[in-house]
Design goal:
single chain; 319 residues; 0% strand; globular
């Protein structure tokens, strides 16, 4: 049974790597002006056609280089799980299944976007988002279940590479999904663009506040070392405010500026909270060790001297 599961997990790891490699090839083809994959237009052409007020500057999309590089590194790390038989099952087969489903959804999004099937791409964006959140949940659950068995190396690699890397990806996709929602209800359901963008920004703002509360209360131990969410939000809102300055309605301009300020504030607060918790954990650990040491019975000097005297007398009798 164990060997069967290891075989299934090995297949999942390899399939995850192959699918993500194909996604990178598709992304290159879909954005290459000289050769569009199977559609009529590149992703950039379609995005410019369906313009809305919530639109980051073109240079903001360079974050995909970071996402792809970060993902490639942790995928290479995941290959080591095939050969390391004693590594705990922190990254389970379900983790790789969910991330592969996110990759397949992203590939489908790329293709349907080139065909200008905007409604379908909106659903696919939300599908990618759900699958990424599910893969993150699998990683956190695995770390919790195997916290006493995972090595220090794997513990930090999974936190810094896997969880933070997927957090960057997930945050960007969450913003993209809500932006895509605004595009859909503007161009296909007759909602005014200003109202559609306000709705999308409102949902995003509520999500940011809820996430900040959850990561500092319910999931404060699990999410202690996940900190890449706010830099991505700062990047998105800064690029949107700068690029759309004087071209966005006053209400949405104020909302984006407010969300930028909130993201910066939450990021700074998160840094201080993480530092405080790490320091506090060290003090608690030290206090537990001191209490445990104090409970160990100590022999008095009189007892030790008595044992030493008895040993000396007995030695004298033997002589």
């Amino acid at each position: 049974m164990v060997n069967c599961y290891r075989l299934i997990k090995t297949v999942c790891i390899l399939l995850n790597m192959i699918m993500y490699t194909l996604l990178l090839v598709m992304n290159y083809a879909s954005n290459n002006s000289s050769g569009i994959l199977f559609g009529n237009k590149s992703i950039g052409q379609v995005a410019r056609k369906y313009f809305i007020e919530f639109n980051p500057a073109p240079w903001a999309f360079d974050i995909w280089k970071l996402v792809n590089a970060w993902t490639a590194v942790w995928i290479l790390y995941s290959l080591s799980h095939i050969f390391r038989k004693r590594v705990p099952d922190v990254l389970s087969a379900f983790f790789f299944v969910f991330f592969t489903l996110a990759t397949l959804s992203n590939m489908a999004w790329t293709q349907f976007m080139s065909w200008e099937f905007i409604k379908i791409t909106t659903g696919l964006n939300f599908g990618i988002m759900v699958f990424l959140y599910a893969s993150l949940a699998c990683s956190y659950i695995g770390l919790y279940e195997h916290r006493y068995y995972v090595s220090r190396f794997d513990y930090w690699v999974i936190h810094l590479l896997v969880n933070n890397g997927i957090a960057v990806y997930t945050t960007w996709i969450t913003v993209a999904a809500l932006r895509s929602l605004a595009v859909t209800i503007t161009y296909f359901h007759g909602i005014k663009q200003e109202l559609a963008v306000t709705i999308a920004l409102g949902i995003l703002g509520v999500s940011i506040v809820v996430w900040f509360i959850l990561e500092n209360t319910v999931f404060k131990d699990d999410l202690l070392y996940t900190w890449t969410i706010y830099p991505v939000l700062i990047w998105v809102f800064a690029a949107s405010v700068i690029f759309q300055f004087n071209r966005v309605s006053r209400l949405n301009t104020v909302i984006m500026q407010a969300l930028l300020a909130v993201s910066c504030t939450f990021f700074i607060g998160r840094i201080f909270l993480v530092i405080w918790r790490i320091v506090n954990k060290r003090f608690e650990t030290r206090a537990i060790v001191d209490i445990a040491m104090s409970e160990i019975p100590q022999q008095s000097n009189a007892t030790r001297e008595q044992k030493y005297t008895e040993k000396t007398d007995n030695q004298g009798l033997v002589d």
